[in-house]
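Dear colleagues,

As part of the handover before I leave the project, I'm documenting each prediction I ran so the next person doesn't have to rerun anything. This entry is a single chain, and its sequence is reproduced below.
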Amino acid sequence: ERQILQSTLQALQEDSTSLAQSFLAIWIAEDTMAVEVAEWYARVPQSIEERIPSTRHSCLHASKIVGWGSYLPPHTVTNQDVNDILRLKGKPTRFGDVVGELSGIQTRQYASSRCYPSDLAVEASKMALKNAGIDPKDIEIIISCGVSRDVEEPATACIIQQKLGAHNAYVFDLANACNGFISGMDVLDSFIASGRCEVGLVVVGEVISQFVTWDPKSRKDLHMSAMSYTLGDGGGAVVMQRVKPNEQQGIHARWFLSDSSYWRIAVVPLIDAEKRRFKSNAAGIQQAAMRHVPTGVRTVMEMLKWNYDDIDLIIPHQVSIPIIEDLFFKELRAPREKVFWSFPNHGNVGAASMPVAFCQALKEGRLKSGDKVLLVGGSGGFGAGVIGLIV
């Protein structure tokens, strides 16, 4: 690697044209987000932040949601529990209280050490299939879209298929951080629109409590680990089916954007298991969300010719009260009664956050058949996604 690096640098330095047209970032670190890194940049005149990221959107109405399901493990972890467990250089902290004050999260659910992501995904899938009235053997595609996985290989979707008995399904994993679920819905909707299948399952099981840092080495490490104390475990699932002619129920519009200039702000390093800890820059995530998400919400509303009077409920990714306040109430001027969140009781459940919140809204009677809903996602990467659907 050293020889390759030296020859590359020498070639760039000797050729001013190549130097001006090149962008090179070499990161040398044991844990990218936890220690200082060494950087070398040769930048083009236009920075990444100045480029206009590409968007993906469509109004094709192809699929409907016929069953929702979610599952939360029984073990509750309070902010006081975080206080009791978390140590900084061997000394106790009150960081659980700080997290609660800053995010609004009071409790989160943790799976046991013997519980795998597929276990949570299967429990949520059983509920979704029961609500849809569909037998697992009739499912044609299973897309597993969690941040966490049972094993590196094969796809966790294979394990879910076996546990469900959905032996006729084509299965695979899809990863897109906390936007995995709505990305999975978008992909399955495309499969249905293309004629590849009639009915499929998008499912997620998150055991992301494994990424929490309980022994930060410094105050900087504690700061970079702060958002990990908001994480909780859970599962979510949705059964999607082809719409019938003139049927209004289903997905009517979607908009997606990726801006990789922000990819470093939320990372779980792919190193050995001892160092797979979630590190993030909360301010950077909020900046990216404020920059991109409002555009997606406004675009989908314009595509569908919806205004806030038309929309029955907005369900965002479940992160923190300040982000929802700034994004939906201050920037987008959305009515408070139209934005639903349930995360104070279960934390940020990664890609399962949206189906968990959706099922809670159904349970509380906040949603009914025929309601118009916006699903609004934001994720590390940075990714933004908005889906407009009729329940």
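The mean pLDDT is 86. The chain has eleven helices and 16 strands.

All the best with the project,
I.
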